[in-house]
Amino acid sequence: MSSTSHGRIPPAAPPTALRRSLGVIDGAAIAASSTAATTSIAIGMGTIAATVGRQAPVLMLLAFLPVLGIASAYARLNRSEPNCGNGYVWVGKSLGPWPGFLTGWVTLVGSVIFLAFTGAVTGSVVLIFANKVGAHRVAGIALDPQSTAVSTAVGLVVLTAVTALAVTGVRSATRLQFALLVFEYAVLLGFCGWDLLTGRQGFSLSWFDPFQISSGTAFAQGLVLAVFFYWGWDAAFSVTEETKSPEDSARGGFIALFAMLGLFLFASVAFQREMSLPELIENGPQALPYLGAKLAAEPWASLPLLALMFSAVASVQSSVIPTARGLLAMGRDRTMGRVWTRIHPRYGTPAAGTVIVMSIAAGVALLAVALPRLSDMLLAAVNAIGLVVALYYGLTAIACAVRFRAARHDGPREALLAIGVPAASGAVLLGLGGYLAYSYVTMSDHFALRPDNGWFMLSLPTAIVLGGLVMAAVAKYGRRSPYFTSGQGTDADALTLPMDRTAA
After folding, report:
1. How confident is the model at residue 23 (pLDDT cuts 50, 70, 90)?
2. 13: pLDDT strictly greater than 70
3. What average pLDDT is seen over the chain?
4. For residue 39, what are the contacts with CB-CB under 8 A and spacing of at least 6?
5. 141 pairs with which residues across the strands?
6. Would you give the end-to-end CA distance of the chain in angstroms?
7. Where are the beta strands (DSSP E) in 92-211?
8. Measured CA distances, 104 to 71, 86, 153, 206 (Å)
9. How far apart are alpha carbons 74 and 66 in whole angstroms?
10. Tell me, what DSSP letter sits at residue 7?
C-alpha cells in the first residue's frame, strides 16, 4: 500500500522505531493527573454548590454513568484503531471529516483554555502558600492570591517549567506525576476521612436525591459541571502510540475514572459534613485550604494547600501532553500546519508543538487578565469547557455506535455494549449541552462581561465552534488536506516517532 493511500501522509522525519515504553500505571497516572481530582474538588465544589445546593454527591454519581459509557466507546475504538488523534480520527472516519475536525478542534481549544486558567489557579495557590510562609511582597509587588494579574504571572512561570519537562519525554513526566498523585491523594483521603467522622453538619440522604434540585436548568448546568470534573481520563488514549498495548491505554483510563468516582463522592460528602452551604459557596476556590485550617493546626493545616498546588502543577503538565499529540495527528493530515509534526531528535516528543501550545495558553491567560477577579475567570472557563467537553465526548460516542453498527447481528449483549451504551451516553451529553445552551440564551436579555450572564457564558463555546468551522474550511480549501478528500484520518504509523530515550 502506498504511503498516500487512505489519506496517509509521508513521514515528516526519518523513520526510527518507536519504543512503546508506557504501561498501565503510566497511562493511569497521566489520566488521573489530567483529571486533577484534588484541583476539581478544591475549586469546583463551591461552584457546583452554588448551582445545585447540597445535591453535589448525587450529581457526581449521575455524571459518572454517561462518562463510563463514553469511556467504553473510547476503549472499543482504541482497540480497533489506536491513534493519538483518537476522537478526531474516529469521528472523522465514522461521521465525516467536518464533525471529525470539529471534535479535534474543540478538544484542543478546550485544553488550551484549561491550561490558561489552571495556570492562573496554580499561581494563586503558590501565592497563598507564599503568604503562609511569610512572603507578602517581592520587588515591591504585592503577592496577592486574589490578584488575577499576579496569579497569572506566577502561573505562567509554572507552565513554562512543566512544558520543559514534557518536552524531555512522557516517561519522565509520568514519574513526577505519580509521585505527586501519591502525596495529594494521601492528604485528600486523610483530611476528608477525618472530616466524615467529626463533621458538624448532619448527614442527609437528601444529598442523593436529584429531585431536590431547584430547576431543570440548574440540574443540567450542575450535571455538565460534574462531567467536567471527570474530564481528563481520556488523556491515557493520547499516548496510545507510546504505550506497550492499546489495552493498557484503556485500562489506565478506566482505573483513573473509577478512582475519580470514589474520590468525588467521598470528598463531596466530606465537605458537606463540615461546611454549611453558605460556607462552601463563599470559600469557592479556597474551599480545600479552608477545610484544612478548620480541621488542623499548622503546619498540618497547610498540607491540603500543598496537595492542591501539586495537583494543579500535575494537571497543567498532563494537559500539555495530549494537546500536543492531538495536534500531531492533525498535522499528519495537513488539517493543521506541518510544524505540529516536528519531532525532537533526542526525546522523541512533539517538542515544537508542545512549546507552541504553551505559548498560546500563555497568550490566552494574559488576555483573561481583563476579567477583574480570578473567580470570574474560573466560572467562565468551567462553563465554556463543560459545553465543549459534552460536545466532543458525545460525538465520539455516536461515532462508536455508527462504526460498530454491524454488532447488532452479534447478539443482544454485543449490540448493547457496542451500539446501545455509546449511543445513549452520547445522546445524553449532547442533549444536556443543547439544553444548557438554550437556557443560557433565555436567562439574560443582554450581553455583559460577567460569568452569571447567559450570553457571556454561551459566547465562548459558540466562538470555539465557529472558529473550528472556519479552520476546517481553511484545511479543506486552503491546505487541501487529504482528510477532507478521502474522509479518512491518518493511520497511526503514517508518522513514525523517534525512540523515547528517556525510557531506558
Report:
1. low
2. no
3. 81
4. 118, 121, 308, 311, 312, 315
5. 138
6. 34
7. 137-138, 141-142
8. 17, 8, 29, 39
9. 12
10. G
Instruction: Kindly state the cell numbers that stand for 44.
Output: 469546583
Instruction: Please state, in angstroms and rounded to a whole number, the distance separating the CA atoms of residues 469 and 382.
Output: 22
pLDDT of residue 21: 54
**Longest Cα–Cα distance in the chain:** 72
Burial of 171 by CB count in 10 Å (0-12 exposed, 13-18 middle, 19+ buried)?
buried
Mapping DSSP to helix (H, G, I), strand (E, B) and coil, where does residue 225 land? helix
As given in the structure block, the three cell numbers for residue 177 are: 506525576
Q: Cell for 333?
A: 493530515
> Helices H, strands E: what count in the chain?
18, 2
C-alpha cell recorded at residue 99: 464533525
Q: What is the pLDDT of residues 417-453, one digit of tens each?
A: 899 999 999 999 999 888 888 888 888 888 877 777 8
Confidence of residue 2 (pLDDT cuts 50, 70, 90): very low
Exposed (0-12), middle (13-18) or buried (19+): which is 141, by Cβ within 10 Å? exposed
- Helical (H) or strand (E) element with 92: helix 87-95
What's this model's pTM, rounded to 2 decimal places? Answer: 0.82
Q: Choose among 485, 503, 376: nearest CA to 92.
A: 485
d(CA 478, CA 480): 5
* Residue the block writes with cell 519522565: 172
For cell 498540607, the residue is 303
Amino acid at 63: A
Closest to 100 in 3D by CA, of 422, 333, 361, 353: 333
Query: Hey, which bits of 73-173 come out as E strands?
Result: 137-138, 141-142
Chain centre distance of CA 97: 23
